[in-house]
Amino acid sequence: xxxxxxxxxxxxxxxxxxxxxxxxxxxxxxxxxxxxxxxxxxxxxxxxxxxxxxxxxxxxxxxxxxxxxxxxxxxxxxxxxxxxxxxxxxxxxxxxxxxxxxxxxxxxxxxxxxxxxxxxxxxxxxxxxxxxxxxxxxxxxxxxxxxxxxxxxxxxxxxxxxxxxxxxxxxxxxxxxxxxxxxxxxxxxxxxxxxxxxxxxxxxxxxxxxxxxxxxxxxxxxxxxxxxxxxxxxxxxxxxxxxxxxxxxxxxxxxxxxxxxxxxxxxxxxxxxxxxxxxxxxxxxxxxxxxxxxxxxxxxxxxxxxxxxxxxxxxx
Amino acid sequence: xxxxxxxxxxxxxxxxxxxxxxxxxxxxxxxxxxxxxxxxxxxxxxxxxxxxxxxxxxxxxxxxxxxxxxxxxxxxxxxxxxxxxxxxxxxxxxxxxxxxxxxxxxxxxxxxxxxxxxxxxxxxxxxxxxxxxxxxxxxxxxxxxxxxxxxxxxxxxxxxxxxxxxxxxxxxxxxxxxxxxxxxxxxxxxxxxxxxxxxxxxxxxxxxxxxxxxxxxxxxxxxxxxxxxxxxxxxxxxxxxxxxxxxxxxxxxxxxxxxxxxxxxx
Lengths: 316, 266
Ligand SMILES: Nc1ncnc2c1ncn2[C@@H]1O[C@H](COP(=O)(O)OP(=O)(O)O)[C@@H](O)[C@H]1O
Ligand SMILES: [Mg+2]
Fold this sequence. Notes:
The complex is a heterodimer. Chain A has 11 helices and 14 strands. In chain A, about 35% of the residues lie in helices and about 30% in strands. Chain B has helices at about 10-30, 30-55, 65-95, 95-100, 110-135, 145-175, 175-190, 205-215, 215-230, 235-265. In chain B, helix 3 packs antiparallel against helix 5 (about 110-135), helix 5 (about 110-135) packs across helix 6 and helix 9 crosses helix 10 (about 235-265). Chain B starts with 11 loop residues before the first helix and ends with a helix.
């Protein structure tokens, strides 16, 4: 456990009869991004709130940098940054004043707080807007300032609860880059998201959670593999030649070929889709089998999610 | 990453509080609507009662009606102002700011105290402004300056106490509009079934029981006695003790309750 930045053991949380978390175990290695993926109501925010000392668990234990989130909350708070789904910033203050206020609440001297605020404003491209009140900020700017505020104390562990929900694609990409840079510099990140694409793009490991339970975990590649490898789909000009095509392609297959003789379609699981594609074309060419269409279908995290939870990610 | 962890320094309880007071005061300075809102209403009441109803109200004293009314309006604006405490907290709650503060290694007491103290400072401004407006339309201080300072101090404490009631309401209802409406619901009977506008003796019997012991009436009694020099020193002292007792009771009940609600706010 000493090696993990975050360790969670059998954490449970109930609100009355609502069991938001039903026993979660996980570990996050230092300097990596864990993506916590789950639909609305899965319990993502609840877990983040427990790990950031905002909420007491009903059962189980959790540690951040080896400090217990309940017993050593005062230390945990010095080690974490939190940016939630809503930009938690003071509308009546300027961007700079917001960051300085947070620095003072970390008990930095005014000079330290001002220097750090300036550094962050530059890093997040908010220099020009630094002395404007937040009322004039766009949604993306607010979210960036919120993330900046969570970094005031240079926390080794950062919690991001749906950091890009509601952002336009441009702002989302900008935020992704910032997050990747932070991890490159050694920060550990636990990120929750409803977007497969985001988890796929950012996370070293993904934990899929649904109705308060972990239903799957692994690297993005592993999760995709769970739903099967790549599939090559070949549509022949002449449906009567499907048997010939199957023979021609036999050396490339990785599992049983599925044949639809009526339509003239073959579906062939393959090990390495992009590598197999040209070989398949050559093999069919040699046997003089004409094709209408040939496509490679790669499994998506969406499919992995569907298989793990029995429903789509964007549905309740 | 090896971070130097800081041990808690008791001094931070104060510096965190100052940071939070400063933050709230900055808000009031930047959004003058809030200040205007909390002064326009009492000014309107002042004008309305002085010029429209005042002629029909018999207060039984020797002073002019504006002299009778102004102490009442001061107490009224302190209570109305307290509504803003709860409303402001709900804004912070819904913006996620309270979550941010709770995730920081700061003093737990600073968020609520920072808000209630900032609201008390705002009341200094409101009271002085009301005194000025009152003076312009005929109010004349009959007591000494030190009596007036005591009266202002009691009004500030009174508003501070009600800020904690309002904070509890804010933490419970969580929604800004609800806090606004809920605020008026508890404030209205307190303000109108009191000696703010008319003597309690002019009310029906059943209402007098409530009005006589209403903390607003008690506070108005002492403020009136101090500003108008209308009571014997002994009566004034009795009123003052009654007012301070009310303030103490409200604080003893609602301060811990608000802190408890804040801690468990999940
Ligand atoms: N304060 C609360 N009181 C009651 N139920 C809650 C509360 N907060 C969350 N829940 C419930 O707990 C479950 C998990 O919620 P949450 O952690 O917010 O999920 P997510 O962040 O994945 O959308 C949901 O069913 C939600 O309705
Ligand atoms: Mg959530």
